[in-house]
Amino acid sequence: MTQWLNELLYLTLEAAPWLLLGLVIAALIKAFSDRLAIARYLSGESTGATLRAALIGAPLPLCSCGVVPATLGLREAGAGRGPSMAFLVATPETGPDSISVSYGLLGPVYAIARPIAAVIGAIVTGLVSGRLAGPAPAATPTAGDTGCCGGEPADPCSEGSDEQTSCCSSEPASSDCCSTDKATVDPTSTGARLSGGFSYAFGQVLLDIIPWMIFGLVIAATAVVLIPDGFFDSPWGLVGSYLLMAMIGIPMYVCATASTPIAAGLLVAGMSPGAALVFLLAGPATNIGTLGILRRHFGTRLIAIYLSCVIVCALIAGIILDLLWLNFDWALPQSAPAGHAMGIDWPGGIALAVLAVITVHAYLRRWTARRKESTCDDSRNTTGSE
After folding, report:
1. Among residues 340, 225, 327, 325, which one has the least CA distance to residue 275?
2. Cystine design at 67: which of 91, 96, 345, 355 (Cβ 3.0–4.6 Å)?
């Protein structure tokens, strides 16, 4: 238990500053990005549009759940199916927060290899999808696709949209009991953009990440303590460990940032660097829920192509990384010291305290917003019944 607590504390303090940095970068990207302008660059099925989709999607601060409505919004705004698939792969597999945490927990090799593999895999997936997907299926409306405050809207956050304030902010701006008394602010001003970006990154993105980040840290510490030496040498073998990581990652919901401490724990437990990369790529890009939603909008054939390309590209990236690792004899990340108390990591401790305060504040804001929305719904129902 002492070793497990040491491992958990070590990984948490190592990850906290990089997660905080990644969220700041995510806020800046969100503040100055324009979804409809992006969609105009992704129309058609050309190679150029697919390349742009992969490069645009890679730095965006969206996880596995958030990328689905974003992709559907881009698709409705005119993006082609190939670019949409490239965006769908690149966005959840990497991002500023996951790259920062990768550097802190896995070292510079992963911080470089991970986004490169994600972008290349996204380009391949987009190109193959655009050429082999066949005719587009008819649109299938689903509950919540066009709602404002219930479910995930298809594209409510377009720049300058009348719905932008009421649907995309945590506090609705309607004219009834939900309205606020805040003064009107120009949404295109730098201050408003920064405010919206930081509110998004340290609100929705942080709340999406935190539960899975904690889960990943717990799994990582457990893996380091419980998995015996040589477990990944036999009976799996090198190739078997690649396939094992792909099989674990495909159905599992885990965002790119939360998958990083799990990979760190597996590496310390003896997993090969390439097999860990397979998990880092396959896990965030695929999960059962996402595949089910996308199948309704893109069709079974396209999703089968998407899933196959993600798996194949992840396996190839893992093999290449292992070959490079052996050739250059790179060092694996170090584990926490076992069997004795750790020294205090002041930068990590300060970052962790800041994240804890911001997380509590974000949960309180979400609870207040939901309570207010519930009160508004009750008020409307009472008025309607009268």
Report:
1. 325
2. 91
